[in-house]
Amino acid sequence: MARGRSILARRTGTATVLVGALAALGAGRAATPSQDWGEAAYQRRAGAFVAQIRSRMFALAPKPEPHSRLWFVRLPNNVGFLAGTGPAVRVWYGDPTLQAGYYSAFQPRAANEPPGPDRFFRMDEGEC
């Protein structure tokens, strides 16, 4: 271990250039648009769209009734808003009975499901 430190101590210029190059590559990668959920650019884009969707939802539906199902069409692509049954809306409204999904998956409620309204929303990417 001591030998490794002594090599770096003798090559501080090389180490500095290497760390600088890695930092530049990391910054470039973070700024490059990507559809990979783990990339910083994707997270920023998704976060911006989801914040806009949340703002629009609170304007359109300030307090959905319990057991409401919220159905969406024309959402911005690849923002991670509707994973599963839409946990974001349950968190936003503080109501564990809410569900959300894509309109294409809509089906009438089953007889054993609690009654509640179905609400439909069109969220154009240009409006979000």
* Global mean pLDDT: 80
What's the N-to-C terminus distance?
54 Å
SS field, number of helical segments: 4
- Round the Cα radius of gyration to an integer and report it: 23 Å
The global form is elongated
Helix % is: 40-55%
Unreliable sequence segments? none
Helices and strands, in N-to-C order? HHHEHEE
Task: Characterize the main sheet.
Answer: 3 strands, parallel
Beta percentage is 5-15%
Structural class of the helix and strand makeup? mainly alpha
Number of strands: 3
Biggest sheet: strands side by side, in what order?
2-1-3
Fill in the keyword field for this structure.
128 residues, mainly alpha, three-stranded parallel sheet, 4 helices
Summarize the structure.
The protein is mainly α. It is built from four helices and three strands, in the order αααβαββ.
What would you note in describing this structure?
With 128 residues, this protein is mainly alpha-helical. It has four helices and three strands, in the order αααβαββ. The chain has helices at residues 2-10, 12-31, 40-60, 87-93; strands at residues 69-73, 99-102, 118-122. The chain is elongated. The chain starts with a helix and ends in a 6-residue tail after the last strand. The relative contact order is 0.15. The model has no long low-confidence stretch (mean pLDDT 80).
